[in-house]
Structures are given as structure tokens and as C-alpha cells.
Design a protein that fits this description.
By secondary structure, the protein is an alpha/beta fold. The protein folds into 2 domains: 144 residues, Quinone Oxidoreductase, Chain A, domain 1, CATH 3.90.180; 141 residues, NAD(P)-binding Rossmann-like Domain (Rossmann fold, 3-Layer(aba) Sandwich). Helices cover 31% and strands 28% of the residues. Strand 1 and strand 2 form a beta hairpin. The radius of gyration is 20 Å and the shape is globular.
Length: 331
């Protein structure tokens, strides 16, 4: 085993957080039972905030960035995991309070990994990544509520982003009528239609001050944006409809009212992808392997070297990246 390896490390310097590619050793990793030879990670919006320095995502410094990883168990003191096991790890505070996936090696708690589902490669699992896993949790939330194909159109906001693009693909594959909202109509219209969106909605149609109740459109919605966009989606959701909220790209506020909830019986379902139960994680990952169109996954993803991440972090925060970004940590 190599004595040193590369990682993207956030450190504190003169009262500021700096992020860069560093050479580390195994002694720099946390004392956890499962050592993973990491193969791939991903670039998510939260990762972009962390490595661009635009938000204090890493709360305990120094810390390796990256909120998910896929790799092979190198060694384990826990009998549940054996050398050679292919695993996926996401959430649980990676890149916030625990060392994350932008590293060629990582140690994790034995309760955290999910076995790589049959039908997926390690690279495909990170093309899905936390964003795709979150999209699946959202779809499951709609289904738990009782929503079915044929009940009416389902809105996806931030549809050209990581969560949104996978959500469009999943819903389309399941037979739902998908209406996709994006701020990049000119450049992403064909992309979203290729994933299965039947209608496109300009971002400004929703990202504005909403009335307490508006005309009913959506049987359900998956919102990745928050703020006024989520408020508009709630105001336009049909009676007894459901909205799964999982993002805050547009802001953490919710300038809405109780009207959709008490006058139309709308349900707002929050999605916590970070601390979801292990059983829910395993079900989501297996379902992704079962139903996600891998041709769509190939179309919506690109692969970059870990050495290019700093620049890419700024691009994703600025909204200049579509779909999914796979990170090859060994490049």
C-alpha cells in the first residue's frame, strides 16, 4: 500500500478556510474500523460551497472534503465488511464533521457503508451519488403519500441540476408526466426533454412572490430550490397533493402561508438525505439500480479529475454545471 496519497483538504489559515490538494498518510485519517480504497466521489452543490469557500460547510478543521464516496474495502476490524467488498458511503456528516470522499483512502464507521447494488459499477454509483440518492428519496416520499402515474403532472424544480435531472429521469421511467423548471431554458431544454420531461417551465415563473393559493396544477412536486420557488409550488399544488423539499439553492426561507395546508390539504414532506435510516438508504440505492435508465445516467454525467475540483466547485455554485459530475480521485 502506498505510504502517501492525495486528498482535497480544508484547513484554517490566519482565520480563514483554505482548500487545496494535499499529500496525506494513513495516520492522518480518523481511527475508524473500515479502511476504504476510494475510487470515485462526486461534486454536489454542498461540495461546491465547501471547496469554493463560499460557505462554512466543513465545521471541524482540518477536514477532507467530499460528501460521498465509492470504493473497495481495503481492511476492516468489523466482521460485516471484508477486503474486496464494493461499497458506497454518503451523508452522515461527511465533509461537515467527518472526513469525506475527496481522498484516495478513507476510514469510515462500520454502520455507514451500503453494499454496491447489483447492476451498478462503482463509477455509476457516483454518477448517481448523493444527488441521485436524494432524488430517489424524494420519489419514494411521493409514492409513500400515494401518488401514482396518471394522477397528474409532477413538477421538478432546479431540473437541470444534480438532484433535479435524476428526479426527471426516475419519474419519467416510472410513467409520470414530468414538468421541469429551469433557469437555463435555452441551453438545457433538449437535455431535459431527452430525460423525459414533457413540459418546460421558466424559473422566473415560480421564483417570485406567490399568492397564498394559486391555480391548481401539480399532483406532486420535487423541489430542490426552496424560498419563493417552493412557495409557488405549494400554492399551485392540487388538493391532497404532496411536495418533497430537499434543497435550498434559492434560499433557506419559505415565504408562504398555511393556506395550501389547511385549505387544500397539501403535504410538505422534508427529505433528510444525510441521516436517513440505513434501511431507507439500502432500499433507495437498490431501487436506483433497478429502475434508473443507465443511458440517461451516461447522458447526464461527466467525469473529472480530483485535481480539477477547485475550479469546478465555483462553477457548480454559479449554476454553470448541468447534471452529475463524477470525481476520479486517482487522477
Amino acid at each position: 500500500m502506498q505510504k502517501t496519497f492525495n486528498a482535497i483538504l480544508a484547513e484554517e489559515s490566519e482565520g480563514k478556510t483554505t482548500v487545496g490538494l494535499k499529500a496525506l498518510s494513513l495516520s492522518d485519517l480518523p481511527d475508524e474500523p473500515v479502511l476504504v480504497a476510494v475510487k470515485y466521489s462526486t461534486l454536489n452543490y454542498k461540495d461546491g460551497l465547501a471547496i469554493s469557500g463560499r460557505s462554512r460547510i466543513c465545521r471541524a478543521l482540518p477536514l477532507i472534503c467530499g460528501i460521498d464516496l465509492a470504493g473497495v474495502v481495503e481492511s476492516s476490524s468489523d466482521p460485516r465488511w471484508k477486503p474486496g467488498d464494493a461499497i458506497v458511503v454518503n451523508g452522515y456528516g461527511l465533509s461537515e464533521t467527518f472526513n469525506g470522499g475527496y481522498s484516495q483512502y478513507q476510514r469510515v464507521k462500520a454502520d455507514w457503508p451500503v453494499r454496491l447494488p447489483n447492476g451498478l459499477t462503482l463509477k455509476q454509483s457516483m454518477a448517481i451519488g448523493t444527488a441521485g440518492y436524494t432524488a430517489m428519496l424524494c420519489v419514494q416520499a411521493l409514492e409513500d403519500h400515494g401518488l401514482k402515474p396518471g394522477d397528474g403532472p409532477v413538477l421538478v424544480t432546479g431540473a437541470a441540476g444534480g438532484v433535479g435531472s435524476v428526479a426527471v429521469s426516475l419519474l419519467s421511467s416510472l410513467g409520470y408526466e414530468v414538468h421541469a423548471s429551469t433557469g437555463r431554458m435555452a441551453s438545457q431544454a433538449q437535455f431535459l426533454k431527452s430525460l423525459g420531461a414533457t413540459e418546460l417551465i421558466a424559473r422566473e415563473t415560480l421564483a417570485r412572490a406567490a399568492k397564498p393559493l394559486e391555480k391548481e396544477y401539480w399532483a406532486g412536486a420535487i423541489d430542490t430550490v426552496g424560498s419563493t420557488t417552493l412557495a409557488s409550488a405549494l400554492a399551485q399544488t392540487r388538493r391532497e397533493g404532496v411536495v418533497a423539499a430537499c434543497g435550498l439553492a434559492g434560499g433557506m426561507d419559505l415565504p408562504s402561508s398555511v393556506a395550501p395546508f389547511i385549505l387544500r390539504g397539501v403535504t410538505l414532506r422534508g427529505i433528510d438525505s444525510v441521516m436517513a435510516s440505513q434501511s431507507r438508504r439500502e432500499a433507495a440505492w437498490q431501487r436506483l439500480a433497478d429502475i434508473l435508465d443507465l443511458n440517461h445516467l451516461e447522458e447526464m454525467s461527466e467525469t473529472v479529475a480530483m485535481s480539477a475540483l477547485i475550479q469546478m466547485g465555483h462553477k457548480i455554485v454559479d449554476g454553470d454545471i448541468r447534471g452529475r459530475v463524477v470525481v476520479n480521485v486517482n487522477q
